């Protein structure tokens, strides 16, 4: 039979768009199906009354993001489209923020660690540096840390290293529970992305790259894919109750969604899919009538669970990038503590926003009086929770033969970041190209 489509991609997040872009570069016709009304997924930004609100991802890095920067260049974006944050990250301790988290000089300043814990930080950084070559962030299953959890790794050091660094950092940005999540992906990622001074943000919203890629592709918004079946030479998709066929399909969705859409996948895929659990995230964006922020000048403030039960992080978006709020105004993002998210998710937006903004008054006095509006963002499948169990199964998943249905997503890369999404998209495209017997002539890219 002749399939209806050449290649179908399910999901217009960065992973799906990266896969579609690479396949189109190699001459294929690609149709992207997206249930939402815009591209970006967890990198989507919204515009409200002059405020530019990043609903999910917050930043990228100038290092360790090779696939992302390659996509930026191919999409016709320039260094001028990327803004250097240039502000420190702090951790709350003893009634005030302590700057310097994620910087090499933290060994000297402490960056929120007690003097007794600083030798432990030095030992941790020294060990990580000596084992840098073995801490491959692309293959965390094959590192000296093995399947050890974050909490187990932290147990070898002073308790303060856990309380004010290894707990709050992954909790804020990944929603991780250190008792469940593996240490190797975290340490590998920290080494790859480098110090906070290397971190960047997209001008015009964190969805800038996604929007630019989507503009060059056939993205069909508002179309919900309900089921995928692999028929060997082709795949079949049920989309909004209708059936279409494709030579190949890339499922670029979170692992739980991929398992639901394609439940009859081969055992060498379903094991890792089932083990690739996700953590939810709950975020409240606060539009302010003035540029309030925690004192100290940092753009992000970690609030460890030993100090704060409601929040995990406060991000000053107008300090992260000036275009996030109108002149003379402010925009804050409040991230909920992972322990509280199930409770918040079960309530209404107004109550949740009130609880979080009330808690944030401790760190940003006057916030409630300055509020113009709040916007609540709920992500059931926010970040992959890379557990020891998933690492055990990842090798077999990566070695599986190429089939009509492939996968993309940061869970495939075992990197909870947009770079993980970009790398997984490139990997999925390579597997599709290797499987298809004939390849049309490559399309010549032109800058937009």
Automatic annotation (TrEMBL):
UniProt xrefs under SUPFAM superfamilies: FAD-linked reductases, C-terminal domain, FAD/NAD(P)-binding domain
Domain of life: Bacteria
InterPro entries, alphabetized: Amino_oxidase (IPR002937), FAD/NAD-bd_sf (IPR036188), Zeta_carotene_desat/Oxidored (IPR050464)
GO molecular-function term, one example from the UniProt record: oxidoreductase activity
Residue ranges of every copy of the Amine oxidase domain listed in the record: 14-433
Matching Pfam families: Amino_oxidase
Name by which UniProt lists this protein: FAD-binding protein
UniProt organism field: Streptomyces nitrosporeus
């Amino acid at each position: 039979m002749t399939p209806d489509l050449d290649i179908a991609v399910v999901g217009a997040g960065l992973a799906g768009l990266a896969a579609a872009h690479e396949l189109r570069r190699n001459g294929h016709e690609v149709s992207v199906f997206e249930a939402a009304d815009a591209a970006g997924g967890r990198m989507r930004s919204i515009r409200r009354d002059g405020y530019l609100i990043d609903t999910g991802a917050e930043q990228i890095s100038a290092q360790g993001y090779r696939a992302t920067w390659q996509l930026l260049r191919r999409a016709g974006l320039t260094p001028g489209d990327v803004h250097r944050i240039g502000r420190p990250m702090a951790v709350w301790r003893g009634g005030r923020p302590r700057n310097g988290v994620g910087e090499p000089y933290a060994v000297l300043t402490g960056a929120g660690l007690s003097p007794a814990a600083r030798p432990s930080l030095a030992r941790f950084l020294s060990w990580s540096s000596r084992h840098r070559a073995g801490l491959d962030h692309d293959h965390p299953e094959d590192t000296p840390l093995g399947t050890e959890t974050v909490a187990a790794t932290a147990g070898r050091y002073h308790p303060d290293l856990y309380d004010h660094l290894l707990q709050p950092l992954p909790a804020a940005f990944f929603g991780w529970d250190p008792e469940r999540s593996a240490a190797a992906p975290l340490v590998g990622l920290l080494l790859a992305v480098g110090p906070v001074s290397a971190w960047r943000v997209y001008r015009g919203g964190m969805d800038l790259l996604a929007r630019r890629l989507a503009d060059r592709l056939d993205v069909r918004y508002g179309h919900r894919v309900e089921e995928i079946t692999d028929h060997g030479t082709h795949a079949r998709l049920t989309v909004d109750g209708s059936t279409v066929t494709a030579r190949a399909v890339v499922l670029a969705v979170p692992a739980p969604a991929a398992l639901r859409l394609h439940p009859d996948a081969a055992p060498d895929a379903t094991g890792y899919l089932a083990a690739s659990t996700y953590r939810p995230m709950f975020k409240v964006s606060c539009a302010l009538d003035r540029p309030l922020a925690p004192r100290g000048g940092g753009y992000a403030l970690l609030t460890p669970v030993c100090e704060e039960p409601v929040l995990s992080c406060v991000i000053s978006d107008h300090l992260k990038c000036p275009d996030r709020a109108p002149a003379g105004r402010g925009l804050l993002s409040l991230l909920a503590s992972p322990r509280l998210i199930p409770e918040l998710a079960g309530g209404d937006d107004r109550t949740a926003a009130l609880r979080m903004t009330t808690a944030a008054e401790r760190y940003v006095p006057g916030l409630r009086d300055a509020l113009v509006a709040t916007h609540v963002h709920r992500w059931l499948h926010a970040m992959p929770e890379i557990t020891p169990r998933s690492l055990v199964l990842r090798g077999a998943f990566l070695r599986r033969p190429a089939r009509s249905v492939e996968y993309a997503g940061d869970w495939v890369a075992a990197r909870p970041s947009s770079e993980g999404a970009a790398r997984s998209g490139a990997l999925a495209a390579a597997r599709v190209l290797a499987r298809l017997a004939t390849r049309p002539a490559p399309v010549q890219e032109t800058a937009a």
